[in-house]
Amino acid sequence: MSVIELSNLSASFGGRRVLGPLSLTVADGERVALVGRSGAGKSTLLKLAWQQCGSDIALVPQDLGLVPALPVFHNVYMGRLNQRSSWYNALSLVRPFKKDRAEVCEVLQALAISDKQWVPLASLSGGQRQRVAIGRAIYQGASALIADEPVSALDGPMANRVMELLSERFRSALIALHDVDLALRYCNRIVGISDGVIALDEPSNRLSTADILPLY
Ligand SMILES: Nc1ncnc2c1ncn2[C@@H]1O[C@H](COP(=O)(O)OP(=O)(O)OP(=O)(O)O)[C@@H](O)[C@H]1O
C-alpha cells in the first residue's frame, strides 16, 4: 500500500519548468528523505505531494504556517481543528478542555518546550517555533508526514531528538533535509533531486555521505 503516489508530476513558474516530469511513490512504512541543493525543487515537490495526497497526512511546511498572536497551546491544537465541531473549537479558544491540555502538554514535553505552552508564539525563538509546528503535526495523529526542513533551526542534539521522535510517531514520511547525516540516520530511503528531477533513489543502507554530496 502507498501513502504518496505521484505520477508524471511537473511544475513551472513564469513559463520556466522547475520540477519534473517525475513520478514518486512512498509506500506505507517508508521514511524517505528528499535531498538536493537549494532551489533544486524539493519544496515545490512537497507542496504538490501534499495537495494531491495530503488529506490524511500531517504537514510541516517550510514557513511553518503558525499564528504568532496565539499561544503555543492553540497553535498545536490546530492540528485537530478539522476533527472537531466549530462549537468545540470556539470553546477551546477561550477555555481549552482538560483532556486536550494534557494531550498537547505530552507532545510539548516530548519536544522539550512544555514550559512555553501558554506563551504567545511570537515570543519564541526560531527553533522553538519549529518545534511547535512539529508538535501540531504530531498532535494531528496522522500516521504519515510531509515535512520541509523540519529541524533546520535546531542544534545537533535537539535535531537528533526531534528526528527520533518523528520516527516514533509517524510510520511513513517524506522529509526534505539538508543534513545528509540526519537523512541517512533517520530515513530508510534517500531521493536526491537535481534541477527538478530525481537524480538518486536508493535505500539508505546502500549509501554513504560521499554518495550524496555530488548532489550539492
Ligand atoms: N512561487 C514561486 N515563483 C517563482 N519561482 C518559484 C516559486 N517557488 C519556487 N520557485 C522556483 O522554483 C525552483 C525550486 O524551488 P524550491 O523552493 O522548490 O527549491 P528547494 O529545493 O526547496 O530549495 P530550498 O532547499 O532552498 O528550500 C527555484 O528555482 C525557485 O526559485
TrEMBL record:
Keyword flag Nucleotide-binding: yes
GO MF entries: ATP binding; ATP hydrolysis activity
Residues annotated as domain ABC transporter: 4-215
Alphabetized SMART domains for the sequence: AAA
PROSITE patterns: ABC_TRANSPORTER_1 (PS00211), ABC_TRANSPORTER_2 (PS50893)
Keywords, ordered alphabetically: ATP-binding, Nucleotide-binding
PANTHER family in the record: ABC TRANSPORTER ATP-BINDING PROTEIN (PTHR42794:SF2), HEMIN IMPORT ATP-BINDING PROTEIN HMUV (PTHR42794)
Name under which the protein is recorded: Phosphonate transport system ATP-binding protein
Native source organism of the sequence: Marinobacter zhejiangensis
